[in-house]
């Protein structure tokens, strides 16, 4: 979605292709630095933009700060037009930093999980939430193991469903 927003001159033209955000409180958007729409696997870095629609704030988490700042700011401006309301862009330089050139996607996934499960879903509806990830240490290897475990659970569930769903084929004899 963020790539479509960045590439589209008028984000209002995307309204029919995107979900209705009228009852949405938060939007989680992975941000990629690819600028070429003809490259399906373009880009070299991922970061996370979490938009609090209710508060009008877009929080940007970048493990290689400030690598994706421009892409996140552009996405925020376009989303603001699409939502029909002002959004304040908050770049968070205290986001956890990766130690190599390959963990950015894992960081995005782990940050999404932490922000959703440990912050947003635990708060009361009127409560203000500190969205900072400052001081939070992320273990990329543990994040990869967790993702692999989840994928394996879904794979097993898919196998189980397929085995129950098979219809015996009777051949006339």
List the helices and strands and how they pair.
Elements: H1 2-7, E1 26-32, E2 46-52, E3 57-61, H2 69-83, E4 88-92, H3 104-120, H4 140-165
Parallel strand pairs: 3-4
Antiparallel strand pairs: 1-2, 2-3
Quick structural gist:
The protein is of the alpha+beta class and 173 residues long.
Kindly describe this structure:
The protein has about 170 residues and is an alpha+beta fold. It is about 35% helix and about 15% strand. The protein is built from four helices and four strands, in the order αβββαβαα. The protein has helices spanning about 1-5, 70-85, 105-120, 140-165, and strands spanning about 25-30, 45-50, 55-60, 90. It has a four-stranded mixed sheet with strand order 1-2-3-4, with helices on both faces. A hairpin with a 4-residue loop joins β2 and β3 (about 55-60). The longest helix has 26 residues, at about 140-165. It is globular, with a radius of gyration of 20 Å. It starts with a helix and ends in an 8-residue tail after the last helix. The model has no long low-confidence stretch (mean pLDDT about 90).
Main β-sheet, spatial strand arrangement: 1-2-3-4
Q: What is the averaged pLDDT score?
A: 89
Distance separating the two termini: 55 Å
Annotation, overall tally of beta strands: 4
Shape verdict = globular
Q: Helix proportion of residues, in percent?
A: 25-40%
